[in-house]
Amino acid sequence: MTGPITGEASWLAILVQCEFASGTLRTWEGVGELALPDGTVWLGNGGMVGLSDVNVAAGFFASTLSVSLSGVPERFDDFYTRAMSAEDEVKGRRIIVSWQPFGPDWQPVGGRVALWAGVMDKLVYDRSLGQRSVTLRNETPFVTRRKPRAAFLSPEDQERLFPGDLGLSHVGASASKTLTWPQY
Questions:
Q1: With helix as H, strand as E and coil as C, how does 122-150 read?
Q2: Is 7 helix (H, G, I), strand (E, B) or coil?
Q3: Which residue in 16, 85, 121, 155 has the most C-beta neighbors within 10 A?
Q4: Domain ranges across the chain
Q5: pTM to 2 decimals?
């Protein structure tokens, strides 16, 4: 493959960067550590990571992505249990999926290219009989774009949004008021 961004490349590898609250995890689908020219070091996962379909179409739309890791050793049980119980460790943190081109000698050629960027949503740890896997569910920032902002229907909120508008100043008094309708 030859391209203007990467020059000549023979192989591509998927890289996943997760920015957890406790620190950044960088992993790639190969074996061992990968040191890139930009100074970042990526841990190899031996091809045990799976990605759901990556939608890279242009435009502002909501898409999701799941990253799963199978063959998780038992010694990581405590780590994943803590990560699942601490919502701020995962929820809303940035994740970037990229690919890195390599030359015929497996040396990086050019820089990595981001394929998908979003925020982490939920970490699911599955401990089935004799098998463990972790799935990280992710979404783009556009998933909640139609959801209204969290706010209360209060006079203070209304005054902050629309200075001088006193339309909600009587809401508290109206809460216990009995209305008869229709009136004949």
A1: EEEEEEECCEEEEEEEEECHHHHCCCCCC
A2: strand
A3: 16
A4: 2-144, 149-184
A5: 0.65
